[in-house]
Amino acid sequence: MMTRKRLALILASFFLLAATCVALPLLFDKTPRARVTFLNVGQGDAVLIQTSGGQRVLIDAGPDGSVGAELARALPFWADSLDAVIITHAHADHYGGLPTILKRFKVGWLIYGQSSLTDGSVGAINEAAVSGGSRVGTVATSKKMNVGHCLLELGGLPETQDRNDQSLVGRLKCDDESWMFLGDLSAEHQSDLIRKHPDWRSDIVKISHHGSDDGLNEELLKAVGAKYAVISVGKENKFGHPSLRSLKKLERLGVQVFRTDIGGAINVLVDKGKTVLNYAGKDLLIK
Ligand SMILES: [Zn+2]
Questions:
Q1: Where are the domains of the chain?
Q2: What are the C-alpha distances in Å from 284 to residues 21, 269, 287?
Q3: How far is it, in rounded angstroms, from Cα 87 to Cα 167?
Q4: Residue 227, Cα to own-chain centre: how many angstroms?
Q5: Which residues, in sequence order, are CB contacts of 89 under 8 Å at separation 6+?
Q6: What tens digit of pLDDT does each residue of 32-61 get?
């Protein structure tokens, strides 16, 4: 028979454990009001949005399993779910890491542009995701999504055969800070985008198509008031991204460039009316 003392000890241990489980996340959770991380996934894209309310949305999954380790670094250790993963378009450098993500995280929603699911590889991964409990959404030309207190607006071109031009683009606003994510949309169609969304001002722009020649549109950067550019690109990639011409244009415009191949993952933290950008181990106060 269990003595009273032993029972009290077991109960006390149980409550201590329960209290630790509640307190630990609070202790370690330094999530500011919003955090946007451009993950270092090599030649590809993956951007994680986190809010202080615990919402987590990923835009693109990178080219391969490397996204798993990058997410583990960027997320709190107890995180086992993502509210949504948005795949901008059906090129492997944007969806290749999706199977790794689905293995490690519960994904609430998978969101695609209107043409991505017609791709066989994306379709097969999606089928596995659906049987694992994810829901699927497609965005035709526009959709607004609340990510906690932030607003993410998605947009796409009506109909196009070009895979890069099928990219869903996104504009995120958290408090006073704003971002634009251009997928791999060609410069030509970025002009259509700003005509369609003249109110999409954005301080920070994820440059399209890893900084290639055809991904940089000066008209868009001027129109949205871009001050900072992020180029998500692999070290010594075979495509020669980013192009020297793109880098020169950004320099001429006075837009400061941050590159994942040079500085690794790039963190932008928004809290108490300020924005801090962490690059290559340094914190820069940018607002
Ligand atoms: Zn790409």
A1: 1-30, 31-285
A2: 34, 10, 9
A3: 8
A4: 19
A5: 113, 115, 116, 163, 164, 166, 167, 168, 183, 184
A6: 999 999 999 999 999 999 999 999 999 999
**Amino acid sitting at position 133:** G
* Backbone phi, psi, residue 196, to 5°: -75, -30
Q: Give the integer Cα–Cα distance in Å for 61 and 207.
A: 17
CA 69–ligand 1 middle distance (angstroms): 20
Its pTM stands at: 0.90
Q: How far is the CA of 25 from the centre of ligand 1 (A)?
A: 35
Q: 3 alpha carbon to ligand 1 midpoint, in Å?
A: 65
Instruction: Give the model's pLDDT for residue 276.
Output: 98
Rounded distance from Cα 92 to ligand 1 centre (Å)? 8
Span from the CA of 44 to the centroid of ligand 1 (angstroms): 5
Q: At which residue do the structure tokens 């993500």 appear?
A: 101
Q: What is the 94 CA–ligand 1 centroid distance (Å)?
A: 6
Residue 106: CB atoms within 10 A of its CB come to 12
- Yes or no: domain 31-285 corresponds to CATH 3.10.310.30: no
Ligand 1 centre to CA of 60 (Å) is 10
pLDDT digits (tens, 9 = 90+) for 108-149: 999 999 889 999 999 999 999 999 999 999 998 899 999 999
Q: Are 208 and 220 in contact (CB under 8 A)?
A: no
Task: Give 220 Cα–ligand 1 centroid separation in angstroms.
Answer: 19
From the CA of 23, how far away is ligand 1's center (Å)? 41
- From ligand 1's centre to the CA of 212, what distance in Å? 10
Instruction: List, in sequence order, every residue forming a beta bridge with 138; answer none if it has no partner.
Output: 112
Cα 17 to ligand 1 centroid, rounded to whole Å:
46
Q: Above 50 in pLDDT, residue 25?
A: no
